[in-house]
Amino acid sequence: MDFDPSKVTTFELRNEYALMRVRVRLEDADDYDDEFHTDESRVYDVRYEDKDNTHILTGGKVIQQLDLNDGSSADDLNMPRTGSKFNENNSIQYVGASGVKDEVYQLADFTSGDLITGVDHDGINDDHTNAVFTPTVSEDATRLIITISRG
Fold this sequence. Notes:
mainly beta
């Protein structure tokens, strides 16, 4: 186990890659677009209901997906327990290359506590520069951090 999911209260996404136009897809609320600049971070709340149900929230609304290429297929961070349309697993999942099997990564598993680094080999939004997704936790273990960088 790389982290203790029951201690995590926030999720931080760090952009060390490039400017991204992110579509934030919400459950039972209107989606919205977010211009995510290099060297910026976004922090979201984590609601950990039990060992098998974790939700990531913004403004009290469940985030289903952070679409990193403004609505096009692939290049998506799917949040835990958001159903068959996004992600049935209790993990934060990255899907690159239009869902090709070797481009799907369970970056942070809230059941097992495992962290796995993912690489999108064609880059985000066909940038053609590898995008590396590196999950870590803060020193006090309360913040899960995923950093997107060039690799």
